[in-house]
Design goal:
By secondary structure, the protein is of the alpha/beta class. It has 8 helices and 8 strands, in the order H-H-E-E-E-H-H-E-H-H-E-H-E-H-E-E. The chain has a domain of 131 residues: Rossmann fold (3-Layer(aba) Sandwich), CATH 3.40.50.1010. Helices cover 35% and strands 16% of the residues. The radius of gyration is 28 Å and the shape is elongated. The N and C termini lie far apart (78 Å).
Length: 198
């Protein structure tokens, strides 16, 4: 058996030493400690996953439930003649504590005389008041930030944009109003409409 013929490789090209390559090599030799900007653009840390999550199942959620209430949820509850605490208990079959942040209170106060009933309901002593430390009074950002940090809340809202933002956060159930009663979304223990599976 004879030797196999070596065929010339057509794809291999000679490396051409260009002016740009020489300049780059000189910079590397002269300034070895110079920061590489391409490396700086890469993310330095990976967002930490909450220890309360088991995949997408939130183990921190359990009765008594703490429900973060949005401005429009209170307004729609009044329109549908629903009692906040009683409606939540009918939906979840457990004790619920409605929580109202300073931003939601500020938003209700800004709405003026038309929403005075909603403001009076929000000032109910049965509801838990949560102080806000951030700047600004935009309630949607406040609720999203709080839920991202602490995954022990259910968010009650009828706002489509806020629902869309909260759906991106794993393990946070959303309460909303449908057919004149409260319903829950993304809570494993309950089905939509609040009825338990048999």
């Amino acid at each position: 058996m004879g030797k196999a013929k070596k065929t010339p490789k057509f794809a291999v090209m000679k490396k051409i030493v260009t002016h740009k390559a020489i300049k780059q090599y000189k910079e590397e030799v002269l300034n070895p400690n110079k920061k590489d900007l391409s490396k700086e653009k890469l993310p330095r840390n990976v967002p930490q996953v909450s220890s309360a999550l088991y995949f997408k199942y939130n183990t921190a959620l359990g009765p008594p439930y703490r429900v973060l209430v949005d401005t429009n949820f209170i307004n729609f509850s009044i329109q549908n003649k629903l009692d906040l605490e009683k409606g939540m208990m009918d939906c979840l079959y457990a004790k619920c504590t409605p929580c109202i942040t300073d931003c939601v209170m500020a938003e209700l106060e800004k709405l003026g005389q038309k929403y005075r009933v909603a403001l009076r309901i929000a000032k109910d002593p049965r509801f838990e008041r949560l102080p806000c430390t951030h700047k600004g009074t935009y309630a949607d950002d406040c609720l999203v930030d709080r839920v991202t940090q602490h995954k022990c809340y259910i968010v009650a809202t009828c706002d489509r944009d806020l629902k869309r933002r909260i759906r991106k956060i794993p393990g946070v159930p959303i309460m909303y109003i449908t057919q004149h009663k409260y319903s829950i979304e993304r809570l494993p223990e309950a089905t939509i409409g609040g009825a338990p599976r048999m």
